[in-house]
Amino acid sequence: MNNSAHPTSAATVGDVVALIEQAYPPELAESWDACGLVCGDPADTVRTVRVALDCTDAVADAAIADGADFLLVHHPPLLRRVTGVPVTHPKGRIIHRLIRAGVALYAAHTSADSARPGVNDRLAEILGVTPGAPLTPVPEGVDPLTATGIGRVGELDTPMTLRGFTARVADRLPATEWGVRAAGDPDQMIRRVAVASGSGDSFLGTVLGLDVDCFVTSDLRHHPVDEHLRAGGCAVVDTAHWASEFPWCAQAADLLGADPRLSASVIDLRTDPWTLHHSSTSAGKDRP
């Protein structure tokens, strides 16, 4: 797949890394994050790139089957408590598989969350929200409308009720078993929206002080949302983590595919871990 005799017109792993890091600069990543090249030789040739949100076994298999030389993912596979990658480890198994097949792996996580355009811009746009200022602090002298940072705040293209906006979120994001749920008055009008792709309950305190009608994010928990609402906070829409971030994959593939040396596309696999969902029964609703 990869070879040591590279034609001058061919791109290398190093070239693709440079393209990624120009769009999603590593310095934008959070201090705890692990963005960057996970495996691969910077000198190896790259012609075929695939993009996915997670590097699961199924994604690795799909990349190899597609003849990919490079796999770009959002979530770093070696982020927490990893001291080795033996083939007997679930993560090590994937890394070994990619190395043996000659597939380089790169993770652009919070670097892509903060960049413009990035994960949060794509989430806002797909929901009809103008991607304005980030939720993270903007340095003095920087235009908030162009500042990098996690989250976006902007106007909704068409004011609608929370009920209608929740339906729009469910309709426009990729389908999952988790679905979409909301907290707040279903008939409240939504005009201004904050979004934070992925797990965003750490921003509930931030949006409490903003002039927004709704906050869209993922992985929300009972107590933080309850306390947010009781403190007078805006309505909240909770999506599946995977659904709020997967739309970025097409953006990243288009970016890399703009290089004439590369063929880039998305591995269209749902890596959301949830496989079943049942609504509560009427009997359950009657219980105290």
TrEMBL record:
<dbReference type="GO" id="GO:0005737">
    <property type="term" value="C:cytoplasm"/>
</dbReference>
<comment type="similarity">
    <text>Belongs to the GTP cyclohydrolase I type 2/NIF3 family.</text>
</comment>
<feature type="binding site">
    <location>
        <position position="245"/>
    </location>
    <ligand>
        <name>a divalent metal cation</name>
    </ligand>
</feature>
<feature type="binding site">
    <location>
        <position position="75"/>
    </location>
    <ligand>
        <name>a divalent metal cation</name>
    </ligand>
</feature>
<keyword id="KW-0479">Metal-binding</keyword>
<dbReference type="InterPro" id="IPR036069">
    <property type="entry name" value="DUF34/NIF3_sf"/>
</dbReference>
<feature type="binding site">
    <location>
        <position position="74"/>
    </location>
    <ligand>
        <name>a divalent metal cation</name>
    </ligand>
</feature>
<feature type="binding site">
    <location>
        <position position="113"/>
    </location>
    <ligand>
        <name>a divalent metal cation</name>
    </ligand>
</feature>
<dbReference type="GO" id="GO:0046872">
    <property type="term" value="F:metal ion binding"/>
</dbReference>
<protein>
    <recommendedName>
        <fullName>GTP cyclohydrolase 1 type 2 homolog</fullName>
    </recommendedName>
</protein>
<dbReference type="InterPro" id="IPR002678">
    <property type="entry name" value="DUF34/NIF3"/>
</dbReference>
<dbReference type="Pfam" id="PF01784">
    <property type="entry name" value="DUF34_NIF3"/>
</dbReference>
<feature type="binding site">
    <location>
        <position position="241"/>
    </location>
    <ligand>
        <name>a divalent metal cation</name>
    </ligand>
</feature>
<comment type="subunit">
    <text>Homohexamer.</text>
</comment>
